[in-house]
Amino acid sequence: MSTKNFRTSLNSDEALISTLVYSALNTSKEQLLRPAHPGWIEESGKLLVRHCLSKTFDQKTILQELLDLGFKLDTIVDHCIPIAATRLGEAWVQDTLSFSEATIGSANLQILLKHIAQDRENNFVSERGKRFLVCVHESEQHTLGALVLGDMLRRQGHSLKIKLDAKCSQICNLQESNDYDGIFFSCASFLSVKETAACVRQIRRTLRHNCPIFLGGSNIEQVSQGIDLKEFDLVTSSLNAVIEYVEKNRKEVPLSFGMAAKG
Amino acid sequence: MKQKSDNLWKFGSIPMIEPEDLGIVLATSSDIAVLLNSDTKISSILVNKAEKSYGNLDHWIGRKITDFLTTESIPKIKSAIGKLENGETVLYGLELNHVDNAYWQFPIKYNIHRLGKDGQIILLGRDLQTISENQQRFVKAQIASEESIEEKRELEAHFKVLLTKTTDALAFINAKSGEIIFSNPAFQELFFKDDFKDEKTKMESFIAGNSERKGFMEKLSIAAHGSYDISEELETTSGEVIFSITPNVYRAAGQQIIICKFLPKTIRKQGEKELTENLLATFHNSSDAIIFTDVKGSIQYTNERFLDLTNTSHKNEVIAQNLSDFLGRGEIDLAIMLENVMQSGAVKIYSTHLKSSFGTKIDIEASVSRNNSDANGLIAFIVREVLSPSGREEASKVHSKLEHSQDEVAAKELVGSATLKEIVTDTTDVIEKICIEAALGITNNNRAAAADLLGLSRQSLYVKLSKFEM
Prior knowledge:
The complex is a heterodimer of chains A (263) and B (470). In chain A, helix 2 (38-53) crosses helix 5 (99-117) and helix 5 packs parallel to helix 6 (144-155). Chain A has helices at 12-32, 38-53, 59-68, 73-93, 99-117, 144-155, 168-178, 190-206, 220-223, 239-248, 255-262; strands spanning 131-137, 159-166, 182-186, 213-216, 234-235. The model of chain A is unreliable at 1-10 and 253-263 (pLDDT under 50). Chain A has two domains: 38-117, Methyltransferase, Methionine Synthase (B12-binding Domains), Chain A, domain 1 (Orthogonal Bundle), CATH 1.10.1240; 131-262, 3-Layer(aba) Sandwich (Rossmann fold). Chain A is globular and about 70 Å long. Helices cover 57% and strands 10% of the residues of chain A. Chain B has 470 residues and is of the alpha+beta class. Among the domains of chain B are: 19-127, PAS domain (Beta-Lactamase, 2-Layer Sandwich); 166-267, 2-Layer Sandwich (Beta-Lactamase); 273-386, Beta-Lactamase, CATH 3.30.450.20. In chain B, the strands form three sheets. In chain B, strands 2-1-5-4-3 form a five-stranded antiparallel sheet. In chain B, strand 6 (169-174) and strand 7 (180-183) form a beta hairpin. In chain B, helix 11 (420-442) crosses helix 12 (447-454). Chain B is elongated, with a radius of gyration of 47 Å. Residues 1-5 of chain B have low confidence and may be disordered.
C-alpha cells in the first residue's frame, strides 16, 4: 500500500508524544550530524590532505566543504585536523610524500586551524578555568599539535600561554612569574622527546615549587619509546586525563589568591 | 638516448664499466653512496668530494645503517630493503634522516638498488640540506607568526576586558563612513535591542531627529579635532536621551577613528519633561544665586540673581570667568569648596563673602554639589545672602555692646589673679585654638586647606594641633 498522502489522525496523547519525539530529534540533530565517527573522520582526513596539498589551497573553501558535509567546527579541530596531520606524516614515512610536501600540507592545516580559532569568543573571567603553559621545546619543529591543544583548552574555559620554540630558561621564568596550574609539552619526534625530557629535568631542579608537567602528542607512545619519562607527571594524548589529574591535585591557595585568579 | 618504459637500458646499449671507473661514476653521480652487505651493515661509503659538510664518515663502515638513522627513518629503510629482498624494484626516492651524534641530522634522498645476487645493496643519495634549511626557515617564520598571533590574542584579551569593565558607553567610529567599528557592552545596552551588530551600523542612525543626521559626523569630527564635547539627542532602547559626547580622534591601520564616550545628560520625553521645565523655572526665578561651573571653577551657567549680587549687568561678563574672582578669599574659598565637593559629593554650608564688581562685599552661605560623572561634571553652587548690610551692622552693634560689657567683667576678674604676660599668653592660646577649630570646620577637617586659610605652614599647624591636643 502506498503511504503517499496517507495520514493517521492522532489522538491527543499520541500527538503529545510525537511532538516530544520531534523536539528530542531536533535537539540532538546537531549531535547526530557527522559525529566523531572513525569512518567519517577518516574521510575528512583524506579530504583535508587532498586540499592541503593542492596548489589552490584555500582555507575558507575547505572549511565550507567540511561544514556542508555536516562537520562541526569543534569536530574539525579535535579530530579532522589531527587525523589529516597523522596521514601526512604516514605518507612521508611511506615515501609517497616528500618532506617539503608534508611541511606545506601541515602548514596549510595550521592555516585552517587559525582560521577557525581566530573567531572564537574567549571567556576571560571564567571562574572554573585553569591557567596553563603550553610549550613546544626548541628541538621540536611540529607546532600543530600544541595549537590544536591550545584551542581545545581555550574552549573548555582555560586560560593559557602558548610558547613555541621554548628554551628551558624561558619556561622557568614564565612558571616562576605566573605559577601556572600545569605545563604541557607537545612532541612529535624521538629526538624532541629526548630533549624535552632533559629540559623538564632542568625545570624540576630550577623551580622552587613543584608543578604538574605533562607530555602529549598524537603518537607520543611510539616516539617516546626507550626514553626516561619519569620527570613527567603524566604522558598521554588524552586531554581529559590531564584535566582530571589537575583537578585531583588542585593547589590549595589562600582565598585572596583564588579571588585574584578569577580575573 | 633511447629510453624504455621500464626504466632499464637495453642490454649492450651502454658499455661494460670497469670496477675502478664505476666507483668514480657512483661517487660523482650522487652526493653520498653507501654499500650495504646482506646484513645491512655498511661495507663501503663514498662521499662526493664537493660535499664537505658531512666530514669523515669512515666510522660508519662495519656498522648497521640503522645506527645512523633517526627513529622515524628506520621503518622506511627496512621496508625498502624488504621489497628488494622480495625481488621488487624500489622506484621511488627514499627520504632518510641521518643522525650522527645527538644533535647532528642531515636528510638524504636515496635511490636504492640491489647489486648482484649476494644480497648487496647500494644507496645513491642526493643531499637535501638546502631544502631542509629552507624548511627550517619556513618553520621559524611560522613560529614567529604564531607568536605574534599569541601576543595579539593577549592584547585583545586586555582590550576586551577593559571595554567590558568600563561603565561609560564607548564606541569606535570610522571618521569617514560613520560606521561603528567596536563598541562596549555599556554602549550596546543603551543602543541595541537584541542581537546587536556593530558592523555597518552608522552612528547617525541613532540621532533622534532625521534632519540632524546629515552633517553629524562632520560635527563630531570637528569636535574631536578641537577637543571639545558636543551634546546630541540620541535614540536609545528606552527613548530619546540627550548625551554629552566626548570625541577623540586617532589613526589606526590607515583609518581615521573617533573614539566617543557617551554620557547621558538629561532624560526627556519620558514623563520627566515637566520636571525639567520646573527645574529651569526654579533656576531662573530663584531668590538664591545658582551658578554652574566646571571642575576648575570656570562659570558655565548662572541665573539673574548672581548677576544682582555681583552687580553685573550681563551674563556674558561672568560666563567663562572663574568663580574665585567673586569670592571673598578668592582661590582659597574655591579650592576648599571644590576639594570637599569632589571628595564627598556635596558641601552643605560654606560661609564666605561675595565681591561685587564695584568691590563691595556681602556675607554669603553657599551649598555646593556635583553630578555623578567625574569627567564633564558640572559643579552647582547655590549662594544665599546671609543678611542685608544694614541689618548686619545693627546686629553687629548690639552684639558688640553685649560682648563688650561681658569682656569688661572678665578683664576685671582676671587683673590681679595673674600677671599681664600670663593673661596675654593664655588668651593668645585660646584665640589660636578657636581660629584653628573654625578653619578646620570651614575646610571640613582638611588640614592642608586649613593651614592655607590660616596662613600657616602645614608643619606649624600640626605643631599647634598637637599642642592643643586637637
